[in-house]
Amino acid sequence: MASQLVEKYMRTEHLPHIWCPGCGNGVIMHAVVRAIDKLELDKNKVCIVSGIGCSSRAAGYLDFNTIHTTHGRALAFATGIKLAKPELEVVVIAGDGDIAAIGGNHLIHAARRNVGMTVVVINNNIYGMTGGQYSPATPAGEFGTTAPYGNIDRPFDIAALAAGAGASFTARGTVYNPAQITSCIQKGILHKGFSLIECISVCPVYYGRKNKKGSVIDMIKWQRDNSIPVEKAGKLPPEELKGKIVTGVLSQATYPEYTEEYAKIIEKVSGGINYEQA
Amino acid sequence: MVKLVIVMKTLKTIDKWCKGCGICVEFCPKNVLGLIDDKVTVQNKEECIFCGQCELRCPDYAIFAEENNYEQAGFNARQ
Ligand SMILES: Cc1ncc(C[n+]2csc(CCOP(=O)(O)OP(=O)(O)O)c2C)c(N)n1
Ligand code: SF4
Ligand code: SF4
Ligand code: SF4
């Protein structure tokens, strides 16, 4: 028997999961179910949507309505689900490649539309599943199998990208501090509109080895020693924030939510026809 | 009538799920845990303060605190 939380919300017959020893995916998946449990959401009213990647396999382990879709397209599927069933709590779990490389266009438009969903990004700074290619979140100068001499791209700040595109809630945490991730996810779910929580993860096998980051414990300690709460970061000059991870709730705004606006249009045009009964 | 509830906490480990990453061992504030043959073991049970950090950080759900509540019915505060 596993813990009550794991027994209640995970498909334990599929555990242990296939993720490598120390991989941050398991910690973040645990934070997702803890947040859902704390909010006492009805399991049958939650839908977990993922794309493709190591992180996206979470949809297979979680015991809710779940859908494991195609690489980069989780947000497109999630938008459709939310429009068809606005009463569902839609939670997307996506890797940095999934959400910001191939899925970057879906990200900016779902954020711009402010579709009511919660996006949990598992940012391990690399493509894990396919063997360590650099992603749009790989810091400049770091290595990947496709950047054998060092990456010359500047990385995206995924939370800032989403906020800039119109996301109404953004937050960030690290696997060093799973309690903070849990609380950010809770706030993200409670927030009405498009919420994105960037969880800084660890991929000790590809990112860690390629970049000589030491053991997974060294990588987690690095997060501990380089995180700055957003309240404190606001008082520091930009030079002191270089290479640091700013954590907490980063932005929050009130914009019209997409499915509500859509329902209003239907109401206006149809004069209130109930299509489910008609 | 006052209900007396005794909460018993016990550390549980799941050998089959533990991948021996050592994260729980390293971050336990009380040095309760260790690894033997790449599996987590509870070595200083008495020191555990049930802070829950091992459970939060284990990527494999292989360590957790189990809670058992025992209710003592019929307990009257005046007695
Ligand atoms: C359309 C398409 N292009 C490419 C791939 C190959 N592919 C699978 S996962 C992946 C990237 C995984 O990286 P990320 O999304 O960051 O997730 P991680 O594995 O690191 O969790 C790629 C390029 C694919 N499956 N489908
Ligand atoms: S390759 Fe990296 S991201 Fe994928 S399971 Fe292994 S450690 Fe995790
Ligand atoms: S609950 Fe806290 S003190 Fe007890 S073993 Fe886990 S980390 Fe250590
Ligand atoms: S953190 Fe989990 S998987 Fe890693 S050694 Fe501890 S119990 Fe095992």
Description:
- Chain A is of the alpha/beta class.
- Chain A has a single domain, classed as Rossmann fold (3-Layer(aba) Sandwich).
- Chain A is built from 12 helices and 10 strands.
- Chain A has helices at 4-9, 25-38, 58-61, 74-84, 96-100, 104-113, 158-165, 178-190, 204-210, 216-226, 230-233, 258-270, and strands at 46-50, 65-68, 89-95, 117-123, 126-127, 133-134, 169-174, 194-200, 227-229, 245-252.
- In chain A, strands 2-1-3-4-8-7-10-9 form an 8-stranded mixed beta sheet, sandwiched between helices. A two-stranded antiparallel sheet of chain A has the order 5-6.
- In chain A, strand 1 (46-50), helix 3 and strand 2 (65-68) form a beta-alpha-beta unit.
- In chain A, helix 2 packs across helix 8 and helix 6 (104-113) crosses helix 7.
- The longest helix of chain A has 14 residues, at 25-38.
- The model of chain A has no long low-confidence stretch (mean pLDDT 97).
- Chain B is mainly beta.
- Chain B has one domain (4-72): Alpha-Beta Plaits (2-Layer Sandwich).
- Chain B contains 2 helices and 4 strands.
- Chain B has helices at residues 23-27, 53-57, and strands at residues 4-13, 33-36, 39-42, 63-72.
- In chain B, strands 1-4 form a two-stranded antiparallel sheet.
- Chain B is elongated and about 50 Å long.
- Chains A and B meet through helix 2 and helix 10 of A and helix 1 and helix 2 of B.
- The structure holds thiamine diphosphate (TPP) and iron/sulfur cluster (3 copies).
- The site of one iron/sulfur cluster has 12 residues of chain A, from helix 9.
- Thiamine diphosphate binds next to helix 5 and strand 5 of chain A.
